[in-house]
Amino acid sequence: MGLFNLILQGIISGVVTGCVYALVALSLVIVYKATDVVNFAGGELVMIGAYIGLLLLMWLDWPYVVIFLITPVFTYALGVLFSRFALEKINRKKTTSSTVLVSFVIATIALSDMLKGIVRVIPFTEEVRRLPPLFSGPPLFLGDLVIQPQDIVIVVVASLVMLMLWVLFGYTMVGKALRATSQNERAASLIGIPVKSVKSAIWGLSAMVASIAGLLLAPKLLMTPDMGNMVMLAFAAAIIGGFSSLPGCVVGGILLGIVQNMVGIFISPQAIAVTPFFVIMLVLLIRPQGFFDKTLAYKKV
Amino acid sequence: MSLGRQQLLIGVILVALGIVLPACVPEYFIYLLNLLMMYLILAIGLDIVMGWSGQFAFAHIAFYGIGIYGTALLHMRLGVPFILGMPLAALLAALIGYLIAVPATKLRTVYLALSTFAFAQCAAWVFRTWESLTKGPDGLRMTPTNLFGFEVVNDRQAMPVIAVILALVIAATLNLLHSKLGRDFFAVRDNENVALASGVDVKATKVWALTISAFYAGVAGGVYTLFQSYINPDNIDVTLLVLILSMVVVGGSGSLGGVSIGVVVLGVLPELLRAAPKSLLIWQEFVYGLILLLAIIYSPKGIWGLFTRRREKT
Fold first, then answer.
1. Which tens digits make up the pLDDT trace of B272-302?
2. Do A243 and B125 touch (CB under 8 A)?
3. Whose CA is closest to B168, among B20, B10, B3, B61?
4. Of A78, A249, B58, B171, which has the most beta carbons under 10 Å away?
């Protein structure tokens, strides 16, 4: 295969993984916008989604479609519980705004430890596993390029989730309440929006999106309790969008997926691991507000 | 009690314990105590930047790694004795901390956290991949530290040395606490705008906080080389950072007493879990997370906060 084809193949697989990074980035950013919390447990929500999927598959042997519908229910509950029983209690004790932010972040770090800890204790985790392929079939050939049918499923599901988020935020009453809460909490509560419920719902939604990303990722990656470390890629994607723009997350995620593969081809496979950190530092150094105009971000969320 | 006497008292007690304990305590406890003392230096350093100055800087582990590799490599490659190599490595950590701090402190909370975290991960990657220097993922076996012509070969011999270093660190920290810079740290934490209006150079203060905390982490790294014989780059990672962070938060950030309590409680916990009938060690991570979550929900000032609150009430 020539270099040109290698690059094309890299771009294709970069778009596929990039879609998953974009989902995780979205889950981080919606929570940040609505509740000011940087969720360091974002990766663990991805991981827990994958493991819930694994357990459902092993115990009940349901088809994938059902698992894709049921796993998010569990993670939604998890997100709501965390928001209700941890974040709100911290918020009530707040002294100054900057210290409460620190407390929030520490609470998410605690959550990430607990989720990893729980997964390490349950059975099935001693062995490294992966979920069965989402869709098995003969690969498609485009000239010299190979496209796995599973990759198409990943892109389609990820796009569906993004579309659903877009419709939810842009065109429904719930979405308006979410947007109002993230813009001005006090004003939102004054016009009768139940701010607390909205915040919990956002956490639930974010956990849902993350767990779907986990289900999409688990057939491609090896599952370990530490697979949540991929969250740094999502952070990098979110940073490209200035940590506030939803379209920015999508573009950032896909861009990162491609950049990762290009680094693998042109620099060294070892350097792939360090790419997201490099991107984060670089973007924050050059353009901390991200590459997406604030007004555009404002319109979408 | 005046500052000087307080420092002297703590110093004398620590050094005395450091000399007496190795003679009468089992080997295993000596190791644990050495480890706790090292954690304490690391935790005090993290507390200076987070608890005192309110800056969410996550690069601590990178500086610790620089301290470890710096001290070890200066000794092994260039024959620099510990007494010189450790301060040099700590200064190198502080210098890199300064270089990071200058751009990073321009960033707001979240971005500061992410950029410093990213830096720490990059550093960890360098430790794992720069094979000609660090031996890469296989880890580096260290030669015993040489101190004034004596070789420090076991935990017993290392303990008095570590106790002296810890005593110096605590004395320096108490000095810092009562200095103008120390007060500036607290002013910046409590309200940047007010601090600025009162004539505090906020930016310089933040840079100082990060630089000093990097120096502490470098010292802790040097201490590591005293009682360990092997560097595993995989251990210089987020897990350790989260552990130190938990110690600071659970104990009580912003106070030396609180941090010490946190170090002891969380440092001893895995040993208790291991000692439990039918080892509960696999629950360690979950229990850490739970303790951290409960602490941050019910007592944001940590265990230390529980004591001081009671004292204020009565």
1. 888 877 777 788 888 889 998 998 888 878 8
2. no
3. B10
4. A249
